[in-house]
User: Which sequence fits this backbone?
């Protein structure tokens, strides 16, 4: 029985071999070119926010859950550089200048470098990934982020054997952030190398098919769906490969309450409130919180043998 | 002017302002992405504010030379209880959905809930004995002693707020400063009063039951 007829013409014969082999970088180049063109047309455009990102591909790393609204995700933010109330970042980050923007990737790597936001956007094809996002404050959202695995950027700089951790830093510009409060700035975060290289760790430049708005961490941030939201550092200017465990902002502010790992864990309560359940924004009742925010199948092996009560 | 009847009506209406504002925002679907958190914070904020207002009445009477302000103290205190009750209801109904075991766990395990619950419980007897009848039944002195519980409500309320915030302690510290100053005023007034007086002492009546009535 004939199950599958071979196609008369193969795709590889239609597209020149060279282009075919490089189709990924071609696809990836499209959004960058698009953004670049837009930048030329309106050089004053201080932010790419809201620009539709073309050629965003589907991803296997997606959950099939009801999305929160763009309104929810863009008006209910923790971004202390722009005020400590949830509604403040949407207001105070309105004029945040996210273009031009460069991210310095440095430290224990063979090819350190500075990447413009356009370069970052064209480094790998952009994917849309629908992730659950769980805040340490026991609320959660479901967001269609746009980006690609952080590992793609890290691979580019060729980390050396000395690199055991990755340290991240958010821009801190007092002039643009007069309402910053509640923490020491600049905001810093960190990951173990294997966490950073995990495919779920997303280098994110957009949401809902558009470039990120400032209050959600424009122009580039990390998304770590199995960790509490504050690990997913926003508006990154520096990524440094280092040998020792880097300091992280919330852990510096209160080491008893926020650890380096900060994996979503319903069994380890915050000293002041339960982490056993959460309120999904838009829902009335609470739902139980899942171990690793439901990403245990993918990430639990990163922590095998570790006491997660101690390494909270 | 403060003795006129309409002033009380005015203060009553003004104190209802926050709840009308909340209802207006609810009506317009403008309670943020997390309405339950918003309502909880809103009612909590107004509870501590009204506690501060209540504590401020006596010092302001003396410092501004407006003894008639006493006419509003009971009402303002009852509004503190009113917003505190709304805050408490938001917690047990909207947040916990009457899950009593879970609430019990919270009260025991979560110090900030313990403090808040204490502040609320301390207000209960004050609200219940706020009538002229109760002042008579208890006697002015004892009534007054009982109503000093409001000092502890203030302290517990501030502690509740302080323990609850993640890292931005500016607001709880501000309310703490207000409550602190208002209590220090009382401590100072008490110390002054205890000093041996050379001139014949005036009758010690910080507040007499009659002063609570509209037309003393």
Assistant:
């Amino acid at each position: 029985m004939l199950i599958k007829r071979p196609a008369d013409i193969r795709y590889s014969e239609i597209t020149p071999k060279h282009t075919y082999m490089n189709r990924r970088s071609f696809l990836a180049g499209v959004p960058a070119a698009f953004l670049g063109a837009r930048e030329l047309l309106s050089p004053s455009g201080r932010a790419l926010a809201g620009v539709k990102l073309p050629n965003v591909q589907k991803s296997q790393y997606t959950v099939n859950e009801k999305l929160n609204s763009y309104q929810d995700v863009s008006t209910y933010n923790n971004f202390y550089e722009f005020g400590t109330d949830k509604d403040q970042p949407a207001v105070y980050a309105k004029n945040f200048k996210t273009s031009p923007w460069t991210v310095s990737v440095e430290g224990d790597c063979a090819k350190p470098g500075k990447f413009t936001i356009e370069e970052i956007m064209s480094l790998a094809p952009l994917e849309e990934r629908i992730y659950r996002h769980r805040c340490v404050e026991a609320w959660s959202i479901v967001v269609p982020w746009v980006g690609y695995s952080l590992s793609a950027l890290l691979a580019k700089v060729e980390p050396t054997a000395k690199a055991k951790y990755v340290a991240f830093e958010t821009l801190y510009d007092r002039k643009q952030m007069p309402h910053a409060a509640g923490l020491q700035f600049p905001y810093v975060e960190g990951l173990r190398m294997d966490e950073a290289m995990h495919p779920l760790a997303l280098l994110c430049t957009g949401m809902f098919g558009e470039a990120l708005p400032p209050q959600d961490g424009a122009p580039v941030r990390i998304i770590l769906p199995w960790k509490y939201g504050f690990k997913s550092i926003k508006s990154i200017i520096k990524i440094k490969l280092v040998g020792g465990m880097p300091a992280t902002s919330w852990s510096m502010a209160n080491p008893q309450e926020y650890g380096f790992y900060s994996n979503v864990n319903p069994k380890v309560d915050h000293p002041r409130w339960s982490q056993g359940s959460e309120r999904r924004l838009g829902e009335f009742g609470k739902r139980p919180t899942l171990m690793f925010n439901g990403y245990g199948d993918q990430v639990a092996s990163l922590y095998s043998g570790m006491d997660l009560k101690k390494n909270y | 002017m403060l003795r006129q009847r309409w002033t009380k009506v005015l203060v009553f209406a003004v104190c209802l302002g926050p709840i009308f504002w909340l209802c207006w925002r609810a009506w317009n679907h403008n309670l943020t992405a997390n309405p339950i958190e918003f309502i909880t914070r809103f009612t909590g904020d107004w509870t501590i504010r009204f506690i501060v207002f209540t504590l401020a009445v006596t010092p302001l009477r003396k410092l501004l030379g407006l003894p008639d302000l006493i006419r509003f103290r009971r009402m303002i205190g009852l509004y503190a209880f009113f917003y505190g009750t709304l805050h408490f209801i938001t917690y047990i109904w909207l947040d916990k959905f009457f899950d009593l075991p879970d609430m019990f766990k919270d009260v025991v395990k979560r110090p900030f809930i313990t403090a808040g619950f204490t502040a609320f419980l301390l207000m209960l007897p004050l609200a219940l004995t706020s009538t002229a009848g109760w002042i008579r039944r208890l006697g002015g002195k004892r009534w007054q002693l009982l109503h000093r519980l409001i000092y502890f409500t203030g302290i517990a309320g501030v502690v509740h707020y302080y323990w609850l915030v993640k890292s931005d302690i500016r607001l709880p510290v501000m309310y703490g400063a207000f409550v602190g100053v208002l209590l220090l005023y009382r401590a100072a007034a008490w110390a002054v009063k205890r000093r041996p007086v050379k001139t014949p002492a005036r009758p010690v009546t910080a507040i007499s039951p009659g002063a609570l009535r509209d037309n003393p």
Notes: Chain A has one domain: 14-303. The two ends of chain A are 57 Å apart (CA to CA). Residues 50 and 298 of chain A are 31 Å apart (CA to CA). The longest helix of chain A spans residues 23-41.
